[in-house]
Amino acid sequence: MTCDPTDRPAGPDAVTCTGLVHAFGDTRAVDGLDLSVRQGEVFGLLGPNGAGKTTAIRCITTLLPVPAGQVRVFGHDPAVDRMAVRRLLGYVPQQLSADAGLTGRENVTLFARVFDVPRRERADRVAQALAAVNLTDAADRLAKTYSGGMVRRLELAQALVSAPRLLILDEPTIGLDPIARTGVWEHINAVRAATGMTVLVTTHYMDEADQYCDRVALMHRGRIRALGTPAELRRGLAERRRARGETAAGDPTLEDVFRDVAGSGLDDTSGDFRDVRSTRRTAQRLG
Amino acid sequence: MSEAPAAPPSASADRVAGDGIGLLVRAPAPRPGWRLLPARIGAMCAVELQKLRHDRTELYTRAVQPALWLLIFGQTFTRIRAIPTGGIPYLDFMAPGIIAQSAMFIAIFYGIQIIWERDAGVLNKLLVTPTPRSALVTGKAFAAGVKSLVQAVVVIVIAALLGVAMTWNPLRLLGVAAAVILGSAFFSCLSMTIAGIVLSRDRLMGIGQAITMPLFFGSNALYPVAVMPGWLQAVSKANPLSYQVDALRGLLLGTSAHLALDFAVLVLAAALGITAASSLLGRLAR
Ligand SMILES: Nc1ncnc2c1ncn2[C@@H]1O[C@H](COP(=O)(O)OP(=O)(O)OP(=O)(O)O)[C@@H](O)[C@H]1O
Ligand SMILES: [Mg+2]
Q1: Which of A19, A79, A201, B43 could bridge A113 with an S-S bond, Cβ 3.0-4.6 Å?
Q2: If you average pLDDT over residues A192-208, what whole number do you get?
Q3: Residue A281's CB: how many other CB atoms inside 10 A?
Q4: Nearest 5°: phi and psi at B257?
Q5: What's the rounded mean pLDDT across residues B106-128?
């Protein structure tokens, strides 16, 4: 991307987590997470089903308490200074979640209102947000008539209408066709280029992470296992392979890095019923 | 609702036409503290009204039940004369009770709705905006009140057609509206509070059904408190529905009522309900 990781803007990091722990009963969904997202970058949080990505995001967005460890969003503590944190955030949850009983425009207008967009610029701002995601023509249809890709773009418009400094996207492209996926990323990048906002995104698509993220972190069982620019991670694996004397065919992809880091325990321990169910629910609404 | 035009004003359409995102660069300035809560409540109410406008079937179908109560139960019991009503026809006596009952049945549904919104992910997203929980809850409570008002109008019209002599004094009707909205606010918050405790739709449905019947029959909606056994009289005394019915009866029929006490209880109950529901709302997102 355009952002050179070495030229860091002044001010605190957009997000820092130190030793973040969150458990559901006996499940330690997030287990000592250390993370810092710099201002202005696109940061990708990758990891298998059940790695704890969504849980970490819900701690950052004030939805879950922070039982142990520390979280800061532009220097604010989400556990204490909730309103200040929420003002800075745009959030698109993993699940498709536009209000089906409202039109696209009403959905976005609601978010303009709850972020205190003054009445005189509200209609214009909402129209711009809808135009930015190519929904102008469908804006006055009920959201229940939208396809999955349109709902995702509508959610993006809802998140963008308040000009957030930090956009948090939990699997924004899950279940979308390749063209819709590219579309979502193009809309994100167009707005980012204009506003300089920070983006924290989770995804299962390694090609997306490689192409669109400035830095990525690989998360597994509640912790970060690898961190760097996609190129750094790929180079790292190539070096490790050389050191081990392996002669793998071709340069490693980010997916190879992912396999290398998460190891073979991937298939049996992670991704429980809940995850499958929520993924299926998304797929159903898309289908 | 005036703020959600079907199409953007044409002047702005020109400005926006060039795919501009100029307005999206600047974050809006936060509203000063004391104006935030009313603005958010307004936004939540507007959304509920918009939804109602897009899908009116619920309003119509919900009007059927109170109509049947009046037509069948009311007319039959008027002939039996089994219930001492203090000299007024039974249909007159029960009409305010049916207004309160239908309002309660609508309001009790709100807990299920909020769980549904949680499951659909809509609630989570709103909880991440700078909106106090109490504003979300109050908005819902007010919307329940508006729906109930529609029911009240239906009941009053049917009752008038059946020959019930009710007041047309606008001040009294305003009082009726206030009593309906306050009662609905309390019962919707009761339902949302239980939602925040049990967290699942199935359990809430069971509990909802288990409490609406005792609340209804343990009130003065269908018969005066005096005919109840002692223990039920105690239930009725603690039941906000009884105070709501008392106020409605006094305002609509001009029977003797304790209006000051009734409204005091209703205001207090609504305030308590809003407090309880908003403090438990966050649990739904966990
Ligand atoms: N509300 C909850 N109650 C109980 N357990 C939960 C809850 N939410 C998540 N978990 C568990 O915490 C773990 C991490 O879940 P999380 O949703 O954070 O993973 P994820 O990385 O987002 O996975 P995915 O890629 O499938 O979205 C999983 O084992 C999950 O079952
Ligand atoms: Mg997830």
Answers
A1: B43
A2: 91
A3: 15
A4: -140, 160
A5: 91
List of chain B residues whose C-beta atoms are within 8 Å of the C-beta of residue A137: none
Q: Is B43 near chain A, with CB under 8 Å?
A: yes
Instruction: Identify which of B7, B9, B25 has the shortest CB distance to residue A194.
Output: B25
Measured between CA atoms, how close is B44 to chain A, in angstroms?
A: 8
Give A132's contacts in chain B (Cβ within 8 Å). 19, 21, 24
Contact between A83 and A158 (Cβ < 8 Å):
no
Residue B86 lies in a domain: yes
- Residue with the smallest CA separation from ligand 1 atom 4 is A24
Contact A100 B125 (CB under 8 A): no
Q: How far apart are CA A160 and CA A192, in angstroms?
A: 10
The strand pair at A89-92 and A166-170 is best described as parallel
Q: What is the CA radius of gyration of chain B?
A: 21
pLDDT averaged over chain B?
87
Q: E strands within B31-148?
A: none
What is the interface pTM, i.e. ipTM, of the complex? 0.85
pLDDT in tens, B217-254: 999 999 998 889 999 999 999 999 999 999 999 999 98
A190 chain-B contacts, CB cut-off 8 A? 21
CA–CA distance, A191 with A11 (Å, rounded to integer) = 22
Chain B residues within 8 A of A161 when measuring between CB atoms: 24
Q: How far is the CA of A25 from the centre of ligand 1 (A)?
A: 12
Determine, yes or no, domain membership for B120.
yes
Q: Which residue has the tokens 């309390």?
A: B186
**Alpha helices of chain A — where are they, by DSSP H?**
53-60, 82-88, 104-114, 119-132, 148-160, 178-195, 206-212, 230-243, 254-262, 266-269, 273-286
Which residue in chain B has the smallest CA separation from A112? B28
Are A97 and B36 an interchain contact pair (Cβ–Cβ within 8 Å)?
Answer: no
- Assigned domain for B56 exists: yes
Reported pTM: 0.86
Alpha-carbon distance of B245 to B268, in angstroms, equals 16
Q: Which of A20, A21, A45, A49 to mutate to test the pocket of ligand 1 (most atoms within 8 A of CB)?
A: A49
Instruction: Work out how many domains chain B is built from and give that number.
Output: 1
Lining ligand 1 with CB less than 6 A are A 24, 27, 29, 47, 49-55, 94, 272, 274-275
Tell me, rounded to whole angstroms, the distance of Cα A256 from its chain centroid. Answer: 21
Q: What domain range includes position B73? A: 34-273
For residues B133 and B279, is the Cβ–Cβ distance under 8 A?
Answer: yes
B64-B68-B74-B80 Cα dihedral, nearest 10 degrees: -170
Yes or no: say if B183 and B101 are a contact pair by the CB < 8 Å rule.
no
